[in-house]
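Data card: per-record layout.
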Amino acid sequence: MTTATWDAGERALLQAAFESFDEAAHTLQQSYSTLTARVEQMDLELAQSNEALRRQLHVNEAMRRHLDGILESLSTGVLVLDGAGVVTRANGAAAAFLGAGHAGDLQGRPAEDVLRAAGLTSSDRPQRIGSRVVTITGAPLTAEAGGASGSLVLLHDVTRVCLLEEQLRRRERLAAMGEMIGRIAHEIRNPLGSVELFASMVRRDSADRPSVQRYAEQISQSVHAMDRLLANLLLYTRPDRAPRAWHHAEQLILDSLTLAAHAIAKAPVDIRLDLDPRIPLIWCHEGQMKQVCLNLIVNAVQAMPAGGRLTVSLTNEAESALGVPAVRLTVADTGDGIDPSHRSRIFDPFFTTKDEGTGLGLAIVHAIVEAHQGHIDVDSAPGRGTTFTLVLPHPAPLRALPPAAVQTCVCVEESAQ
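The structure for this 417-residue chain is written out next.
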């Protein structure tokens, strides 16, 4: 009886234990399911976060490449400095300004050392690097929090600006000088005519006195020399009043060489002509353009007292700054070159380094070229010779005409003068 009753009690307890275990297992299963769902949700959220992070990294990388492209496209040199003044980044323009092979060569070096190695200082005044003129400015680099995180050093190429300022100053100076020269030339020319008249009368009335005739002839020669000088002065002051027409380019240059024969004969000069056959004509005033070529040729020959090579070339100007079709006429020599300290004054009237020069040759060239709406450049260095380059407008319509029509136009234009 007792055993049977005990077995019933044990069974009840065992049944209760199984029920408790089932409940615990059920609870555990629910917790596991909940945890699994939570893990899956977290995996999804993590994947979404990773995708957003990848997109942000892609955007940041695209932005970085874009900013790098902008930085490298700048013509202004940029140096990025840390708080200690050390270069942490530079663009290609800065490397070119400072003579570095690559922008990376500047990184890790103090900015002062980098500038000093290029012969520059931190001054904001214009400074020269080779043929360039640059200005240097600094600016603080501000972090997002508003504090300073370094600084920028900017190198600006102001070569063109300085050149334009120099040309403006020269024009203002020459305009005032030209007005004065024109007035003086007229005032001098009038009494010179009287002197020449009286000299001719003395020659006529002293046929039996050779010494007097000789003195009168010397007076007359001196008057003619002064008259030529005054004619050059007036040509300098009023070159824009002469009419222009089509003229044969090769013949014009050959005539100029013939006029310069007296100078060419003094030194063994090798003359080379490189004339584009596609440019048979140039639009100019014949006499003035011969004067330009003559002055440049004589100037080149005088720069080669021991001999050398003189090259005259005529080509099309592919991308003219004049805004119209143009031709390029160059006169180059292998002579002494021009002292850099004289470069800014070579077109000034009465400036000369020659003992017997008047200083009007290049001034007249400059005035005539400008009167033709062209421009002139000079490239020279001591010991490497000099090249004068003239860019002259070349109206397009006549270039398209057949040779016969062009010849007709030349004759009509010349007869209209």
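Known properties of this structure: The domain at 162-237 is CATH 1.10.287 (Helix Hairpins). The mean pLDDT is 79.

See the next section for split statistics.
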